[in-house]
Specification:
Pfam families: Hydrolase. This is Haloacid dehalogenase-like hydrolase domain-containing protein 3. This protein is of the alpha/beta class and 311 residues long. It is built from twelve helices and twelve strands. The chain has a six-stranded parallel beta sheet with strand order 9-8-5-10-11-12, with helices on both faces.
Amino acid sequence: MLTKFKGTSQDCDASFGNLPDGGSQGGYVVFLMGDDGKVNPITWQSKKLRRVVRSTLASEALALADGVDCVISLAALFKELMHNENDLMHTFGEHLSYVAMIKLLTLDVTNTVIRVLGGVGHQTKWKEHNLKYPNYGVSSGITSHAWWNELVKQTFISSGYTDTEALSKVATHLYLHFKTNKGWEVLPNSQNVLQDVKSKGIKLGVISNFDERLETVLSSLGLLHYFDFVLCSRLAGHAKPQPQIYEKALELSGISASDALHVGDHIDNDYTGPRNIGMSSVLLCNNVEKIPDHVDKKFVITNLVDILKFI
């Protein structure tokens, strides 16, 4: 994929002001980005000058970068490249693949931004129920309320409690409880990260396998105002890692996949799924040692605050 970075009148002057009129001529820089997310400069052009970049010509790469203030601190990049000019591909891959392009950051919610207060104990039954009625029963014609009620009943029944009338009351209470901030807590650093991203002018969105209570939950936790859109799987009609839900998020944002980054804690849903449609992704994981080999460790973080390094 070829990506252009356009800028001000000095962005692409590879002659450092030595053109006949003594000034910069403007133009563009073209980078080639591979499937691994790394970027390499291919060519640049000004009104009076055109050259082809070789991977070993670090000094010329720096010359063309004069004025690309939207990419990275030029002083730091110059110092790094001059000390290791043969590692140009690595340097641009590490620093430019995200810094120069990200216009949209989407986040998973559960265990990424918020978590259940006190934890839950129905994970096995939840997986079984979700296999039988995927995505909170949306394609089966049942409401999310009914979906959760049945899950709660089956969980208690499997533990030997069979009073179905009492279980219906319990299930309804839990459904309403987890619609409020009483059932959830905001993870440390989440609000600071959202505020920092918002201050950079980057759009923020949610892509979550959740039912229609999600916006109410985020509002009750004081987080909803950070997001330009909230996309839950139940209302979207598709769940991660189905491509349609990521595509819907891009449609809502008006941002192309190449300019979007997703972060979450599930390998299939939050790392592989977004990449399958051309988005970038970062995996949030506390135990890096258990991550499979196909996940690039450079795109793994252990704390949400580390996502700021990629934008």
